[in-house]
């Protein structure tokens, strides 16, 4: 009886190893994409010539429990080598070659990279980091990987462990916690949160512009968003018809994140969320996908194997002689049983710690996690906060002008390639930002607590401008913010010109 009850209770936490393999590959592709985007700002964001030199990082934005290989040097050449190392590890993870080591290495490099410049971090970074962290303990290299070459075929694809429990709980926490943190009237009673979100020109996407005139629809979508995040994760823990309810969760949340990505500029967050949802695909869904796409995938794999045989052996990570087994065969002897027990105990403690961290700030102060206990979260970067547009949506909006005065007295806007300064709102404020990292930087730049950032940004932009011999030298540069406050009923206050910082040669 107890055995049957245990089997029922564990159903919500059984994952398909093929879905986990897709999760592994999706995470690897996102890592490579993230590195590619970040590499375009190698000097700006990661060197001493950029907006956050090392001495400023350690003085203003460093946690003593953190670590970062990227802080070993402030020159771009070292940063480039570290980027290449991270990319090589991500490729190894994609191929499933020595998967566990590639996962650990990718996680370490990601933590190191994120710690180097916390002023450009966003919510998706937390989720990507946690997917890699739990991936260390998941068998996501058991199939569709170099490690799987030569291993016996699995009799079943279902897998249950403490790590799968942690993964499912982590996904649920992302949505439930962000719903609990959205406790402002705009979310809970008024239904105006999406109206205010789409009033933010800095993140407004084209589909958002189409949606913005429809006030009642936005009010309805606000309530739908709030209750979807709050209640839908319950489906992940229903022990009957588990595959059906999990598939409903995955499909609905896929549509949810597609909607977000089409209306708001959220960087890689929606792709990272897609990757997490892929890991939840139930076995019937994976069987269907195998029927539809399996033959084509096998043809591609056969071609790659044929192509790989033409290369020298030391260049081919898929060769059998380089394989490792995820589950080495250990003799059934009592002295070997201690390791799984210790591993599961550690994972349970890590899961409890993660849940406590997430609930801190939501539950009563009596259960707050005190500072001496937070060292582990900061050191291993299991710290996380899912306050997306919470507790309320920002009302302050606006756009930047890099107002430079040339030696002959003309005012030029560095943000717009040196054209004459105009204070009119641009057609697309979002287009002023090169990527989401710069958008997040500009958001943090506004806060009074981050006022220390401003001189470094101003001087960096002036130096970059004057590196181009075709640009006229500047006598002075002001970072101007045209502040525009969103009000109810499609009203705005402003814009008002605010000089955030100024610098001279």
UniProtKB/TrEMBL annotation:
Claim: Nucleotidyltransferase is one of the keywords in the record: no
Predominant subcellular localization, coarse grouping: membrane
Membrane topology listed for this record: Multi-pass membrane protein
Residue intervals of the HTTM-like domain: 12-285
Transmembrane intervals: 21-37, 78-97, 127-145, 157-181, 193-212, 232-255, 262-281
Top-rank taxon, per record: Bacteria
Keyword Mitochondrion: no
Keywords: Membrane, Transmembrane, Transmembrane helix
Subcellular location: Endomembrane system
The protein's name: HTTM domain-containing protein
Native source organism of the sequence: Hymenobacter koreensis
